[in-house]
Structures are given as C-alpha cells and as structure tokens.
Amino acid sequence: MINPYFPPPKISFIPASLQIKKLENPRYLKTKLMEYQEGKFSKKWEILEPNHNVGILIYHKQKDAFIIVRQFRPAVYYAEQNLSQPNNQSIEAGYTYELCAGLIDKENKSIEQIACEEVIEECGYRPKYLIPIQSFLNNTGNSGALQHLFYTEIEDEDKCGNGGGIDDECIEVLSLPLCRSLEFIFDNNIKKTTSLFLAIHWYHYTFKKES
Predict the structure, then answer these.
(1) What is the percent of the chain with per-residue pLDDT over 70, rounded to a whole number?
(2) What separation, in Å, do the N-terminal and C-terminal C-alpha atoms of the chain show?
(3) Domains (ranges, CATH) in the chain?
(4) Which positions ≥6 away from 159 have C-beta within 8 Å?
(5) Do residues 32 and 42 make contact, with C-beta atoms less than 8 angstroms apart?
(6) Cβ-based neighbour number of residue 31 at 10 Å
C-alpha cells in the first residue's frame, strides 16, 4: 500500500541476511519465572525485566510539523511475515513510525537529561526545555515497563547535527505536518507506536486547548 504521508523508507535491511536463532546471553531481554498465589490458585507467569524508557514529542516551529522517526523493527517484521516464504515478504512491513525515544539506561543522569540526549542523537536538535506529558505502563502482560512522555518545541537554530542515531542505529528523521498529524495517527494502515498516537492526540485535545 502506498503511504500518502512519506516516501518509501530508505531500506537498509537485507532480507537475505535473515536468520532466526535461539537467544543466548541476551543483552536486553532478560526473562524470569514468577511464581505466586492469587486467591486459591497457585500461578506461574513468564516475565521480562522491564526496560523503562522515554519518548519525546517534538514540534518544529518554522516547519509547523512534528519531528518523528522511522526505523526497521525486527519484531514487527517477524510478527507480520510468513518466514517460510521469503519471496512473499514485504520489507516495508518492518518499518514503524515512532516518537524519538530511548531506554533509561544511564544511572548518573536524570530522565530529562536522557530525553534531551535522545533528541540530539536521533533527530539532531538540542531542546531548550521539556514539558512532561504523562507516564504510563506498556507491555503489562510481560514486563510492565514504564514510559515517560515529554513535549518540546524546537527551532532552526536548535539544529546541532544530522540525527539518525548512534553506533549501528539506522533511524530516519521525518517531518509530519501538523495539519495532517491527526489524519496520520488515525490511519489504520500506518504502523505506529501507542506513544506516538497518544502524544499527538494529547497535543491536539489537551495542550492546544490549554495554551
């Protein structure tokens, strides 16, 4: 399906390189078995240690647009494809639209400092301030990780780099016009994260009305 909002992603994923293996010595996904009593039932539940994170809704004043990111997500690609028929795979199925975001993995820095660093690294702008939106749980069935959402406004003068992430990250930086943002988040054909939907919804129905 043609995406009416953005051109096709800059494909960096190489399908021929795909292998599915048993996970050993995991870096991020650490599993536990939780045993407990609930009422008269003895239960067991498989859980993941939570990876708490931040997400930032970025509004660019001169562009009158939100700065969002697009990247390849292996889990999304895996979930939606029949891996036994590689010729039928759509590479674009693995690309999702998201807020600038990142893990809270630096013990010596505040959540706000980590959020600012993510904006610099992923989008190439240095935010002057952050406004808290809300904190909420995601993936409650497996990890119960907490995501902290923030809002910031940037200008051309805040540009400090190209963005795109660090190390081996392959992140595309996109400008979503404000006038099309509600249409975008309610388009069921667009693969997007809950936090992107929530943050843009918050902007239109809470932030703008209070401003």
Answers:
(1) 95
(2) 37
(3) 51-210 (3.90.79.10)
(4) 124, 125
(5) no
(6) 12
